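Here is the promised in-class demo. Please do not try to memorize the tokens; focus on the logic of going from shape to residues.
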């Protein structure tokens, strides 16, 4: 008798995200995973050296060949210091999918979510789709649990 396989369920959903206060580093250039990892490490070290409480980790491509890594910082006295800047991501509606990149191909998830959103636009459920971000509960390179719950979010306007 063949072994039973538990299927991996990946589903798209609309949800509302809270506002996030984010310390971030941005740069332009080609995709470079080594640079992304280095900038995340640099940002985490910056936050730790100042004793800031941290939360979610963000990776964004806000423009063509422009990249941002960010970490949510909590507390009233957070101050930016070059090259680290601060911004607030406002509370917003997003189309989201949470998945494990070791089990499901990220390319499949991104293409599936973009196609799903295209049909939601045609149905009139949303007006437009904005930028994309990946959200992690911790450092995706050192925390297997954070990596296994990668949350891809597309900002949407109802």
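The designed amino acids, position by position:
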């Amino acid at each position: 008798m063949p072994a039973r396989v538990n299927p991996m369920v990946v589903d798209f959903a609309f949800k509302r995200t809270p506002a996030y206060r984010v310390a971030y580093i941005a740069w332009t250039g080609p995709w470079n995973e080594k640079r992304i990892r280095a900038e995340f490490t640099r940002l985490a070290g910056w936050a730790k050296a100042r004793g800031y409480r941290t939360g979610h980790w963000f990776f964004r491509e806000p423009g063509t060949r422009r990249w941002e890594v960010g970490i949510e910082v909590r507390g009233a006295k957070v101050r930016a210091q070059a090259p680290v800047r601060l911004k607030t991501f406002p509370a917003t509606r997003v189309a989201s999918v949470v998945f494990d990149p070791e089990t499901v191909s990220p390319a499949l998830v991104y293409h599936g979510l973009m196609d799903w959103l295209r049909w939601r636009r045609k149905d009139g459920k949303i007006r437009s789709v904005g930028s994309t971000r990946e959200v992690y509960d911790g450092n995706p390179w050192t925390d297997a649990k954070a990596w296994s719950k990668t949350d891809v979010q597309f900002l949407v306007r109802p």
